[in-house]
Design goal:
The protein is built from 7 helices and no strands. It is an all-alpha fold. The protein has a single domain, classed as Up-down Bundle (Four Helix Bundle (Hemerythrin (Met), subunit A)), CATH 1.20.120.530. The chain is globular, with a radius of gyration of 14 Å. The termini are far apart.
Amino acid sequence: AAARSASADERARAVRLAGRMRELGEAGDLAEFLEYDIAFHTLLLRSSGNEMFGALADVVAVVLRGRTRLGLMPHQPVPEALRLHERVADAVARGLPDPAETAMRDLLAEVRDAMLPLWRR
């Protein structure tokens, strides 16, 4: 939805946030990475043009913070997750809803796959 509705400034910000997430992730700065991850997803939800999606931003922030506090995040984000954030940002920036949705679904699948072994303990 953000690929359809985001302003030019929001589109550019998504790319900047994803780029900074890569830098922080590769440096292993999980605390600052988390703040950029929250900002990234908040931006996408709020720039979607969908009031319900926008209202989920705080819930997503709580989930991301909780996952980190509970030790359910890797100490360094996996390269695939970093790449997928950049794919989402690029598709949003280019105004391509279908590729943006596919990349976000792939990102969520990556998180799900990382969490499944933890749920099966």
